[in-house]
Amino acid sequence: METREALGYLKGLLEGLELDTNKKEGKAISAIVDVLSNIVEDIDDITEGMELMAEQLDAVDEDLADVEEYLADEDYDDFDYDCDCCDDDCDCCDDECAVFEVECPYCKTPFSVDEDTVLDGSTTCPNCGEMLEFEIEECDCEEHEEEE
Q1: If both were cysteines, with which of 86, 120, 127, 146 could 109 make a disulfide (CB 3.0 to 4.6 Å apart)?
Q2: How far apart are CA 115 and CA 98, in angstroms?
């Protein structure tokens, strides 16, 4: 039985008892039923709001799925990353040199950092908050040896 139906049943029972609402007991029971009626209305309002929010969330979820699908279909090889560690023609560096995968030595959480963060020399772990420091090693490919 739904809450609204249960309230209607309770009201019917009370009417059948023919309580005198001029007496204390009748006033108290009548007030309790009024409070229950207000609670049922509030629950109905909340339920209606949740249903509306669920519809909106579904719409956002569909939009996000469209964005994810669009991004998955993109050809990221067309993007041009600038490589500050060497000439853009260097074979040792590819388009992924702008992002580095790091694993926190404290909590073992993997995360990505960009080249600027590595060049700054340190960052904090997004999971445990420990300060991580980076050591920058020089590139030892043949092209860089020729430049020196």
Answers
A1: 127
A2: 5
DSSP secondary structure string for all residues of 126-146: TTT--EEE--PPPP-SHHHHH
Q: How far apart are CA 7 and CA 42, in angstroms?
A: 13
**Whether the Cβ atoms of residue 111 and residue 125 lie closer than 8 Å to each other:** yes
Token pair of 124 as six digits: 């904090």
Could you list the pLDDT tens digit for every one of the 148 residues in the chain?
788 899 999 999 988 988 888 899 888 998 999 999 999 999 999 999 999 999 999 999 999 998 888 887 765 444 444 445 555 544 444 544 578 888 899 999 999 888 888 888 889 999 999 998 887 766 666 655 555 4
Kindly state the tokens that stand for 104: 């926190």
**CA–CA distance, 94 with 33 (Å, rounded to integer):** 73
- Rounded (to 5) percent helix, strand, coil in the chain: 55, 10, 30
Nearest to 115 by CA among 78, 77, 80, 85: 85
